[in-house]
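Subject: sequence -> structure tokens, single chain

Hey, anyone have a minute? Need the predicted structure for the following. Not urgent.
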Amino acid sequence: MNRFTVKAFGTEAPEADLKQMNIERREVTAKDVEIDILYCGVCHSDLHTARNEWHGTVYPNVPGHEIIGRITKVGKDVTKFKVGDLAGVGCMVDSCRECESCREGLEQYCEKGNIQTYNGHEKYLDQQTFGGYSERVVVDQDFVLHIPANLDLAATAPLLCAGITTYSPLKHWNVGPGQKVGIVGIGGLGHMGVKLAKAMGAHVVVITTSAAKIDDAKRLGADEVILSTDEAQMKSNAGTLHFILDCVSASHNINAYLKLLKRDGSLTLVGAPEHPLPVAPFSLIPMRKSFAGSMIGGIRETQEMLDFCGEHNITSDVEMIRIQDINKAYERLLKGDVKYRFVIDMASLKK
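Reply:
Had a minute. Here:
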């Protein structure tokens, strides 16, 4: 297998800063496309993986799974893309393609384990996969996405993770007109949840611990805001919501939010708290409520999400950074000091 070298930013140990390094990519195979990376979003998963907080990180590690770029080369059997097309790559670059989930277009739930865009297994080179904090990437056409031409490219990058992570459960639980939908937490995920639920026609209720976020929640599209620290507000809104999307990754009292659901309502968790969340049985049993989880979407659904965002002109609220500032961005990410996603201008790596 022929290889070529590209510049990237990655880390060689959990406690080490990210720095510039060289990595190897495979030359395109028959069904591959090569993408010149223009922008790459910064996901909290990047930080967790770089610092081995979820364990199992293989070093050197190059994060980045919110990739937007332009195709510069295609394999001889590629039919879905041509040189010059805009393209996106999200959280995975392959799967077994044979299991029940893969056959249903749910590659994110591949029963043999999908291949992650970084820290996965690059089967051609027999090494770990490297992500989008790099000049170029080579990906099988079946795991590459078309980008609507009308969207701001930098602000589209986070849709490849934050967008699909919120779109998938909203779609699965049939969010739409006539429903009151709660969004817990207004961060990188939550702000996308507000925009998407509103575009789907729902009455959107933001639930936040911070009064300082009320104005921004309404700017994003919220019809109402509930302060979860106000017991009177929480009590008066009990039993009013059809669905809640919980985007909080810190420990929190899940039972307080379950009280807001109507009969047969569902609360779906997309945030990933470090510690278990105790759920009281009688938060669920009396009104047949459900507590569920969801992750990203499959390739088909991710393309559907991008097309939906193109139709409704939805992108993420972003702050642009240079790749050389990634370590500072990680520290700010830990403090919640970003509205609402960092995106790296990859031109800063190519100078």
